[in-house]
Amino acid sequence: MIPGPYLLYLGHSDDEVGIKTSRGLAAFRRDDCVGEWRHDDCPLTLGIPRMDVAAARAAGARTLVLGIANAGGRLGDDLIDDALLAIAAGMNVASGLHQRLRDEPRLVAAADAVGVALFDVRDAPAHLPVGNGKRRAGKRLLTVGTDCSVGKMYATLCLRDAMRARGVAADFRATGQTGILIAGDGVPLDAVVADFIAGAIEVLAPARDDDGWDLIEGQGSLFHPSFAGVSTGLLHGAQPAAIVLCHDPMRAHMRGLPHYQLPDLATCLEANLQVARLTSPDVQATGIALNTVKLDEDAARRLCADTAQALGLPCTDPYRFGADPIVDWTLTCFAPAAPAMTASR
């Protein structure tokens, strides 16, 4: 486990989506976050106290979380310089970027000198198996998306919490850096060699016989040319009984690819069901999760209602309005069959 409390790093970022790791921690592990560290040219905020490393350390922060994502997941000079300041103040540093902290000699030397640790969250477990596609017991729900960074992790966590509120055993299975930091474990799927993606998910969500649910965090999109391979392996390894489609209705085009438009919801939903049927022939779609953060409440509720009517599935913004409609329908679809009546003499 990465020692808390945390100082969440925004740095110089001006990309709302790019700070999703820091934002996710602030949303789902708020009690473990003492503040945010952003420079004067950063227009973004998580709505928690702004602190530099000295103030954060005095407030009890033990780890600086570099909770930003950039193209290629690289450590720029600004990130390295700021991480060195945190280390000098006696703080550990955690990162989910593709470029590892341990591969930057300046950070390694500074951490060794002070006696603090560097945590690279995007390290895949060793000795993962190749997926086998064998049917396994248990109920699994996978969130999928029209694009990357549309709210799959938020939806998955909200679905878990709503199931638990009903007394249903439900576990969040993290597949990305933010989810792993929130849950404390998981598999960073985009760091797994392609041959082992399906097998990694079979290990992450193994068979279970307690009538509970594994809620598996989705990654990427079947319609995103950069990440469709990860999404495909995840669908096969998850062997989901249910899928929930996540979508940002304000997204103008695929993230990072202005020359690619988003698919319509019905097309995307059917494509995900078709791919999932390879290992889960009876998979069902049980809801639509919209990310309506950029819409006012009336417009958001109308869009959810219109989407539900158009697709014949419950639709909500799970973080804003709650996940109950999707959970109600999911549990209804997979409720145990009533025992047959026996005629009396």
UniProtKB/TrEMBL annotation:
Residues 42-123 form the D-glutamate N-acetyltransferase-like N-terminal domain. Residues 130-327 form the D-glutamate N-acetyltransferase-like C-terminal domain. NCBIfam families: DgcN. This is DUF1611 domain-containing protein. It comes from the Bacteria.
